[in-house]
Amino acid sequence: MAVTTPPPTLICTPFFPCAVAQARGVRSPEAFLHGGESEFAGGAACLASLVIDFGEELVGAFEFDVRADDEVNLEVFYGEDLAEALVTKDPFPADNWYRLPRDAHTLAPGEHTVRHPGRRAFRYVHLVSHGPATFAVRACRATLEHAPVEARGWFACSDALLNDAWQISRRTIKLCMQQHYEDGVKRDGMLWIGDYRVEFLCGNYLFGDAALGRRCLEMMAEGAHPNGSLSAAALRAGGHQHPRLDYIAAGITNPGGLDRWVLDNYCADYVCALWEYVLHTGDTALAAQLAPVLRALLGYLENVVLAQAASPRSFITDNQTDQADWWGSRSTLAYQLAAAFAAGARLLEFVGEKMEAERYRQLHRARLRRAADDFGVPRAGATIRDDFATDASVSWHSHAAAWLAGAITADELRALQGKLHANPAVRRPMAGFMEYWLLAAWFEAGLAREALDEMRSYWGQMLRNGATTTWELVDRRVAGLDRIVVGGRSQCHGWSAGPAHLLPAKVLGITPATPGFREVEIRPALGDLKWAEGAVPTPHGTILVVWRGSGTGEVSLPAGVSAVLHRPGREPQVLAGGAIHMVN
Q: Distance between CA 23 and CA 18 in Å, rounded?
């Protein structure tokens, strides 16, 4: 199918450095920050370097002004953290799908403004001179690039750490909103289905996004295979070195088979993501437009054989410390498939295919029963296994997936939470998208305080280590950055920006009940917070709420949006649109 939604015209904003992190062989290394010259001195060492700190993660172009006395050979390296910026030898083989970004320049004597024609993502920039030439850096700057977005949603609460987690999540999503939602703006720069699903929910609650989300769903559908499956990454979705070119499809660099990589859990995510897009935007026309792709994809998912699924060849669940590559839980996949059939039934209902919708509702129920037979059902403290064998591992992932698919009750999940938490052998999320789904399940099952503590743990580790954007992975067994090789990490990764959606959707409790937020359910869940407030954009205007820990507060609804307020121990309360409601 053709992609009909045009790419956005990116906003470009100048950005300037704030400090020098390191310098060697440079006279007055900070002078260029204040209108002077920082001189790289030639001599016997024949090597001088300057590491410039912009203070936070940026996406865009880097340029600098130079006065050269002789011919100069200069290399520029980039880093999301200082350790990465100091890497001057690419740790990856020449045919690797990702290479460490670096630019080389040969400058003739004279004055120059040096700019790389592509795009980079960085906080630190490392300038290294080779040879005895003397030259001076007079100024440098970055051009920050992102899709045109307007800050419409916001969140604040009594916990400063959670506010900071929301802030870095917002920055991450804004930087990841380019000509499509990018998962990791430094390393991948591509549109992955699983990443997109979390990113869109965040972008919708932050900026009221619909257009970029629509474009991404069309781009992913364009990669449909004859058997109905979808490539895990959209085929025409850039890449970190060539962000606006047909990276995978045109073969500009070796894609490493990414154009052929099908992940069954990502295929299931696409069905759910399409439903979530329609629910949040009211764009039911897209469901009709993509109906042929949806039907073919559901047909593919029906034929997935769990016993033949293998991670990371055909599905992934998470990155785990005891695995050389991505780890997979077959029970998690089973529940993800079941959830896709439930979402597919809702979508088919919208496009008028009622008989097919009913068939997938029945298939959803049948798959839940089969998963219970294969992997166990929580009863009297029993847990779900990750695989068929009775001695298989147990994870938080499968239990969250079971809840989200409708396989277990809130009481059952609450009864198991403490047991899972107390057992160090239980696998816990490292990848941000799996942490998101775990927290979504806990909030929805009435475990708000536990979910907030988990959020403090996961995003707190990033914040304690100076993060200005959200990391791809967090390994809480160690205090610093994750264990991925320096240069290969992704520290601006949209699938880990979950607080941007979870805090307003689950703590403030604002979620759409019908497509386009015409009807809204409000279920505040403050846990141990003394107060929380914020705004959620909708196609009809902004919903504003203020909650206090006592369960009282204020709700402002735009015209055309009605709500049902749910609070524990009280009857549901209908709130009319176009009014401010005092809640006692």
A: 15
What the block records as the tokens of 242 is 């060539």
Which tokens sit at 249?
């499809």
Predicted structure pTM score? 0.95
How many whole angstroms separate alpha carbon 314 and alpha carbon 555? 45
* Residue-by-residue DSSP string for 502-522: HIIIIIS-EEESSGGGSEEEE
Q: Is 490 left (phi over 0), alpha (psi -120 to 50) or beta?
A: beta
End-to-end CA distance of the chain: 52
- CA dist 141 and 454 (Å) reads 38
Q: Give tens-digit pLDDT for 228-274.
A: 999 999 877 766 555 554 444 444 344 456 667 899 999 999 999 99
How large is the average pLDDT for residues 167-196? 94
Q: What is the mean pLDDT of residues 414-418?
A: 91
CB 52 within 8 A of CB 76: no
Residue type (1 letter), 570: R
- The DSSP call for residue 7 is P
C-alpha distances in Å from residue 153, one per residue of 10, 166, 508, 547, 577: 21, 11, 12, 16, 19
Sorted by where each starts, the structural domains of the chain and their CATH numbers stand as 11-146 (2.60.120.260), 154-507 (1.50.10.10), 517-583 (2.60.420.10)
